[in-house]
Amino acid sequence: MELGVCRSVNKSSRTKLNNGSRYQGSEAVARNFQSAHPPQQGPCKTPQSRLRGAQWIHPTETFIATEGLHTGAFVYCGKKATLTVGNVLPVSQLPEGTIVCNIEEKVGDRGALARTSGNYATVIGHSPEENKTRLRLPSGAKKTVSGSARATVGIVAGGGRIDKPLLKAGRAYYKFKAKRYSWPRTRGVAMNPVDHPHGGGNHQHIGKASTMARSAVPGQKVGLIAARRTGLLRGTVKVKEA
User: Which UniProt keywords apply (predicted)?
Assistant: First the structure.
């Protein structure tokens, strides 16, 4: 870090950051004209121009790219849109088993669920009487959303992005340089006792219980904060099917 420069540690850089990928109007036709990849974020995004009347208007809107979307592809939004990869429809219009992404958790929040690279959710059921739809999220959990919530058909592009190992420190340096000042991270036991509660000693060890109360003061609040349990997790957990 340069001398004389005041920089927040936890604030990410805003340079080269594209517009947020959020749903706009309910019914529209848009055309994809390029793909953009912001360095700070994972999934690819696609700026698209919208058709209003007989003209393509600008400024453009940004959508999360789905697997299979290409330059020049048309994206349709609304209840009458066809079941095609990249189109945006209310989840109540999607048959059971449909793969979707970028789902609205609440109607009008413009997309909140299954938005990262390679992620998707599955439509597993509808309740027309209550206008509700049940989804299986990427975590495996099941969630009920309003049937009017919008979703994009398909899988978010860029799957497998984090499977390739970094292999060397130089790549990690550039990875976090585009994000925030959070690398390299020094272990507390490697510090001096004036710098960290875990520091000091003739060999690197914490020297006391690593659990810490939730009410601990800043500077003391390190380690396992308000841990319910510690140690190696053993056995399996049975998940109840709703």
Answer: Ribonucleoprotein, Ribosomal protein
Structure tokens belonging to residue 138: 């990427």
Q: Are 28 and 78 in contact (CB under 8 A)?
A: yes
Task: Residue 154: name the closest of 110, 126, 104, 118 by CA.
Answer: 118
Return the residue matching tokens 């805003």. Answer: 14
Count of structural domains, the chain:
1
Tell me the DSSP string of 167-209. Answer: -SHHHHHHHHHTT-S--S---GGGS-TTT-TT--TTTT---S-
Give Cα 73 distance to the centre of its chain: 24
Give dist(CA 184, CA 26) in Å, integer: 44
Q: CB neighbours (10 Å) of residue 228?
A: 6
Q: Scanning the structure block, which residue is given the tokens 């999607």?
A: 94
Domain assignment of residue 147, yes or no: yes
Q: Hey, what are 40's tokens? A: 């700070």
- φ, ψ (nearest 5 deg) of residue 171: -70, -35
Q: Is the pTM of this model over 0.70?
A: yes
**Residue at 138 is within a domain:** yes
Question: Of the candidates 115, 27, 127, which has an alpha carbon nearest to the alpha carbon of residue 76?
Answer: 27
Distances (CA, A) of 217 to 128, 209, 220: 51, 17, 6
Computed over its alpha carbons, how large is the radius of gyration of the chain?
A: 23
Q: What is the dihedral of CA 100, 102, 107, 110, to 10 degrees?
A: -150
The verdict on residue 233 lying in a domain is no
Any idea what DSSP says for residue 91? Answer: G
**Domain, as residue range, for 123:** 28-153
Q: Is 63 within the bounds of a domain? A: yes
pLDDT for position 40: 57
